Amino acid sequence: MDETVAEYIRRTVLKIPRDEIKSMLQKWGFLSEAELQTINFHQIKDNISQEVVQLCEENSADIKQAAVLDIIYNHIYPNKRMWSVYQMKKTGEEPEIFDFQSFKKKFKRRLLSALENVTINFREYEDNAIWIRIAWGTPYTKPNQYKPSYVVYHSQTPYVFISASVLKSNMPLLCQALVIASSYHDIQEMELRSRSLNSLKDIVFKRYNQNFKTYCPRPPQERNAEPESADLRIIHENRSEKERIERVTWEIFGDGPQPQLEFAQYKLETMFKSDPKMEVLDKKEPFRCLVKFSSPHLLESLRSLAPAGLADAPLSPLLTCITQKARNNFKIKEKRGFFPGSFVSP
Amino acid sequence: GVFTHLERLEAQAHEAGRKQEEKEQQEEKLARLKERVEELRTQRDKLQAKVDLQQKGQTGRKGIIESGTTEPSAGAVLEWKIRRLQGMLQAFYLTGISAKLTKRGVCFSISTAYEGTYLDSYYLDLLIRPEVQIHHHSVPIFIPLEQITKRYLKTDIRRCLSVLSDHLNAYARRKYQADQLQEHFSDQLEGTLQRNSLCNLLVFNYKVPGEGKTFPFNARLIYRDLCCSLPTEAVVSCTEKAPESLQETAAAHSELFRHLALHKAFCSFSRAEERED
C-alpha cells in the first residue's frame, strides 16, 4: 500500500471523535467485522489510527477506498465546511428521467478528459442526495487529497451545493462537468452561503415551516397560554402591544424552527443622507459601507429581536426576506425612479 | 395460459379501478345529499314556525308562546351556518383541493392520497394584484411548478390547479408504491432499490418466492408520464443462463408492472405462490 494512502487514512481517522470511530469504520465496510473486533477502541486515538492503518495495509487499500471514508466523515459532519449554493438553468421542457449511472459516466468523462490527475468518488444516500468528492491534481502532480471539493446534488432539482477547496481555479471545470452530466445548460452561483448544509437545503427546497393559511389556522394567542401571573401585584401594562408584536412576529416567521445561517451581509452603495447644512460629504458619491450581521443562529436571533424589545415589529423587510429570497448576501443601491428609498439589486 | 391469466388480471384491475371511482362518486353524492337534507330540514322548521305563528295570530294570544316555536334565534341561525360551511369545507377537502382567502389573495391547499390513505398536503399561496402570481409555496422543487404556472396560471387557474394536483398526486403515489415495496417486500429485493427524486425511474433486483431462487430478475421501470402513477416502460430481464420458463415469467411480470401498482404486483406474486402450494 502506498505510503501517502497510509498517511491519509491515518489522518482521516484522527479527525473522527473517538467514540464515533468504530461506527464510521463499520459504515465504511472496508474492514470486516472480525478485523474491527481486534482493534482496541479505548486507547488513545494515535494508537487506534495506527492499528487501522495496519489492517488497511493487510487489505491493500487504495486511495479510492480511503476517499470513501472521507466522504462518510464529511456526510456526518458537514458543518465543518462552508457550503455555497449554485443554481442550474435549462431551457428545454422534456420530462426528466434521471439515471444515476449515466450521470456518473458523463461527469467522470468530462473531468477526466480535461484533467488526468483527479480522484472522483460518488456516494448515493437514502434521501436521493448524491455526494461527489473530487481531489484535484495538475498535469504534473498527483491529486491533493487533503483539499478535496465536495458536491451534493439531489437529482431532478436545479440546485447544487458545493464546498470548494481553496483551489478556486478548478471551479469552472467542475461547474461545466455538473451541467453536462445533469443535462442543464447553465450554472450560476447564488448569494447564499452557510456552514449548515441542511439549512441551505431547507431554504432552497422550501422545506422550512412557512405559514400557509388553511381553513384551520392556529392563532398565536391560543398557543402561548401564559398562566396568569401567580403574583397579582405584577400588572402587564403593555399587554396589547406585546400581543401585537407576537402576532406580527408569528406572521413573518411562523411556528417552526428557522434554517440555520451564520451571517447576513449587506453591501451598501447608497448616498449618505445628512442634514444639508452639515455638508459632511461634499462629493455626491455613494457612501460605501458593509453591514454584516453574525450569529450562531441568525434567523432565530432575528425572530427574538422584537419580542425581546430590542427592535420594532415588523422588522425591516431586508432582514425578513432572507429565506424567501434564498440569499444572505445583498447589494443595496440607490433607486432612481418613482419610489424613494433604496432597493435590493437582483 | 399466461395470456388469459394476464387478460384476467387486466380485467380485474380495470374493474377495481372502476369500482373505486364509482365508490368515490357515490360518497361525494352522499355528502352533497346530506347537506341538502340539512338545508331542507331547517327550511321546513322555519316554515313550520311561520305557520304556527300565523295560526297563533289568528286564534288570538292564547297560551304561552314557547321560544322554541318562534323564529329561530340568531344563535341558532349562526350555528346552522357554521355547520353548513363545515360540511362544504369537508366536501371540498375530499376532492383534494381547498382554498382560503388571504389578505392579498388566495391560498390553495392540494392534498394527495392513494386509495384511501391520505398522504402529504402542498400549499400554493397566490397574490391577486397587480396580476395573479405566486407569493410562496411548498411544492417540492423537482415538480415542474414553473412550467405549469407559466402555461396556465394567468389564463385558467382551475386548469393550473388541476394539472398541478395531477402531478403531485402521481408523484405521491409513485413514492408511496416505492416506499411500500421497500417496507413490505424487502426480503424479495436484492440489493438496494435505485430511485430518483421524482420516483420516475426505479431499478431493482428481485426474486419471486418459490421460483428463480438462483436467478433473480432485474426490473427497470420508467414513468415518462409525470401525471401517471403506472410506468410507461417496464423492462424485466433475467440472466441469459436462466431457463425458458423464467424468460416467459419475466415478460409476464413486465406486463404486470405496467398495469398494476408495484406493491400490489408483489402481493400477487406471494398469492400466486400460495396458490401453487
Automatic annotation (TrEMBL), chain A:
Cellular compartments annotated: Chromosome, Centromere; Nucleus
GO biological process annotation, one example: chromosome segregation
Residue runs in coiled coils: none
Pfam families noted in UniProt: CENP-N (PF05238)
GO cellular component: chromosome, centromeric region; nucleoplasm
Tagged with keyword Nucleus: yes
Keyword terms of this UniProt record: Centromere, Chromosome, Nucleus
Main location: nucleus
Top-level taxon: Eukaryota
InterPro entries registered for this protein in UniProt: CENP-NAC/CAD_complex, Chl4/mis15/CENP-N
Family: Belongs to the CENP-N/CHL4 family.
PANTHER family named in the record: CENTROMERE PROTEIN N
Protein name stated in the entry: Centromere protein N
Source organism of the structure: Dryobates pubescens
High-level lineage: Eukaryota, Metazoa, Chordata, Craniata, Vertebrata
UniProtKB/TrEMBL annotation, chain B:
Keywords linked to the UniProt accession: Centromere, Chromosome, Nucleus
Matching CDD domains: DRWD-C_CENP-O, DRWD-N_CENP-O
Subcellular location, record wording: Chromosome, Centromere; Nucleus
Sequence segments annotated as region (Disordered): 1-29
Cellular compartments per GO CC: Mis6-Sim4 complex; nucleus
Chief localization: nucleus
Highest taxon above the source species: Eukaryota
InterPro entries: CENP-O
Family of the protein in this entry: Belongs to the CENP-O/MCM21 family.
Protein's name in the database: Centromere protein O
Organism: Dryobates pubescens (Downy woodpecker)
